[in-house]
Amino acid sequence: MSITPRKLNTFTLFKLPSAYFCGVRTKFINDKKCVVSVKHRWINQNPFRSMFWAVQGMAAELSTGALMIKKIENSGKRISMLVTSNNAVFTKKATGRITFTCYDGALIDDCLQKAIETGEGQTVKLRSVGLNNEGIQVSSFIFEWSVKLKS
Predict the structure, then answer these.
(1) 54, 126, 137, 140 - which has most CB atoms within 10 Å?
(2) Which Gene3D superfamilies match (predicted)?
(3) Model pTM greater than 0.90?
C-alpha cells in the first residue's frame, strides 16, 4: 500500500479525529519530506486569537510521523514507533494558514537501517518547522521517535 496525502487524511479522520476536526491536513509526502497544513479557525484558537499550541503540535507531529510511517511501510518490516519526547519553540503568533514541513527522510532511513541490522531499538530526532502565509517561521518542533523491530 502506498502512503498518500488522501489516505493519511482519511486515517486522521478515523484515528485522530481531534486533529481532523481542527483542520490538520497532509498536503504532500515523498521519501524526503512531508508537508502538513492547518488554518487558524475558531475551533483551534486560543484566547489570544491565534492558533492553540497543541494544534500546531498535532500538525508538526503528523509531518514527522507520516514520514516515519511511509518509511516503515517501504521497509517491509514490522516495526513499532513511539514518540519518546518533544520540544517546541514558538517565535510568532500563528494566524492564517500554517504549513509544517519535515525534511528528515534521510535520518529516518539511517535509523530504520540500524534497527533492522542490529535488532535493537533506535531513536531519531525529527524536526518540523511551521511557516505562515508570508513564509515567516511561527514555530519549530523536534520529536524524538523510538523505533524497534517487532518479534
Answers:
(1) 126
(2) Hotdog Thioesterase
(3) yes
Residue 35 buriedness (CB in 10 A; 0-12 / 13-18 / 19+): buried
Q: How many residues does the chain have?
A: 151
Residue given cell 519535515 in the structure block: 102
pLDDT tens sequence for the chain (151 residues) = 689 999 999 999 999 999 999 999 999 999 999 999 999 999 999 999 999 999 999 999 999 999 999 999 999 999 999 999 999 999 999 999 999 999 999 999 999 999 999 999 999 999 999 999 999 999 999 999 999 999 8
CA 108 vs CA 75, 81, 113, 145: distances in Å: 11, 11, 8, 9
Strand-pair category, 122-131 with 137-149: antiparallel
Burial 91-107, CB ≥16 within 10 A → b, else e: eeebeeebbbbbbbbeb
Region of residue 116 (left: phi > 0; alpha: psi -120 to 50; beta: else)? alpha
Q: Give me the number of domains the chain comprises.
A: 1
